[in-house]
Amino acid sequence: MKKFFYLAVCAVLTAAVLLSFAGCKKNADSEDKAEQKPATVTGEWKGEVDITESVKSALNVINPNMQEYFDIKGIKATVNYTFNEDGTYKRTVDKEPLQKQFDAILEKVPDANRKYLEYIIKGHNLNTTPEQYCLDQSKMTFDEIAEDFRSKFDTQLKEITRDKEGRYQLDGDQLNLYVEAGQNATNKIYTVKLEPETLTFVSCTDTTEGPFTIKGMLPATYKRVK
Predict the structure, then answer these.
(1) 152-186 pLDDT, tens per residue?
(2) CATH classification at residue 90
């Protein structure tokens, strides 16, 4: 009888302990779920983006035949996005480190221009020099032609990194960024992968050619700053 009573007490105590553990686990699970907040795009994000294709597109605007005379590759930009709760956004680019990369490209303009003109002269079987060819064709010196090209290229490069402000709308995995500014109005719809600490721009409906092309810039992943 005593043995039976002892076993009964042990069973009750064991059940109490198990229920206690179950209660703790349930509370822990509830706390974990409470801490797992849904991912939100609102906040600040920073990421490194390869903009090589955009730089090449900027060159195409001026003279697409000069691509082979520039060694344009590995151009990286640090891009920042801020998405506000009121539906507005701002995109900025860290310009100082990027300008150093641009300057290295722009320094090659005179040499690239000379090689391009030599190619034209040879192709037309002309007996002249790049300097004389410039004077004959445009009444401008070789240096003036090179500087004009450099100035136009620099302008296009600055357009790539121009700060942008506008409105945004996130619907599922579709992030719509739009700017309403007359002739400069733009509307880009990105497919994104949003997680609590990362935002990845996977693809975009925009296939614009020119200095604003996003071809080759995606996917791009941004990390949450705050």
Answers:
(1) 988 888 888 888 899 999 999 999 988 766 545 66
(2) 2.40.128
- Max CA distance (Å), the chain: 123
The H-or-E segment that residue 35 falls in is: helix 2-35
Q: Is residue 196 part of a domain?
A: yes
pLDDT in tens, 102-127: 999 999 999 999 999 999 999 999 99
What are residue 184's DSSP bridge partners?
none
What pLDDT is stored for residue 7 in this prediction? Answer: 41
| Residue 93 belongs to a domain | yes
> What residues have CB less than 8 Å from 221, skipping those under 6 apart?
47, 198, 199, 200, 201
Cβ neighbour number for residue 101 with a 10 Å cutoff? 17
156: domain range?
Answer: 43-112+150-224
Contact partners, residue 128, CB within 8 Å, separation at least 6: 121, 136
Number of structural domains the chain divides into: 1
- The stretches in the chain having pLDDT less than 70 are 1-38, 180-186, 206-216
Residues contacting residue 4 through CB under 8 Å, at least 6 positions apart: none
